[in-house]
Amino acid sequence: MNGITSFTKGRIHDVVLRPLGKFLDERGWLCELFRSDELDQQVLPAMAYISMTQPGITRGPHEHVDQTDYFCFMGPSNFKVYLWDMRPDSPSCGVRQIIYAGIDAPMAMIVPPGVVHAYRNVGTEHGIVFNAPNRLYAGDGKREPVDEVRYEEVAGSPYLID
């Protein structure tokens, strides 16, 4: 865990936040999640998935050694997203950042490797999250170790979810 046991509040270097816009018409709405001409080549997605999180449930905290996550929080619920910068060479090492995203604040979020992250559905509906990471889960053909360091059940973890 890099020896850091407490964090200061602030913005985490290299975490990118981009409001998502919905284009409405008589049929419903459309939302562009990402465009290759707006992303650095290093974070271009290698795969995509969606997940559903029930109200009050938290996913994480965990981090990746090599993978960058590209999350989109659009609703139908709201999420409280927790980030902790553990990168020793980062100007924001030791910083914790909390972001609210979802139906009330549609948001795309790029989370680089070494940033521990978690999110909790703080709404009353099932929440949908889209992720398009730049690495394949378990590598090509799912034959490699999963790039994930999990902290959910680590005793004395400094990654506190309130």
Automatic annotation (TrEMBL):
InterPro entries: RmlC-like, RmlC-like_jellyroll, RmlC_Cupin_sf. It comes from the Bacteria. Pfam families: dTDP_sugar_isom. The record marks Y137 as: Participates in a stacking interaction with the thymidine ring of dTDP-4-oxo-6-deoxyglucose. Its EC number is 5.1.3.13. GO terms for cellular component: cytosol. GO terms for molecular function: dTDP-4-dehydrorhamnose 3,5-epimerase activity. It catalyses: dTDP-4-dehydro-6-deoxy-alpha-D-glucose = dTDP-4-dehydro-beta-L-rhamnose. Signal peptide: none annotated. GO terms for biological process: dTDP-rhamnose biosynthetic process; polysaccharide biosynthetic process. It is an enzyme of class 5 (isomerase). Catalyzes the epimerization of the C3' and C5'positions of dTDP-6-deoxy-D-xylo-4-hexulose, forming dTDP-6-deoxy-L-lyxo-4-hexulose. This is dTDP-4-dehydrorhamnose 3,5-epimerase. It comes from Citrifermentans bremense.
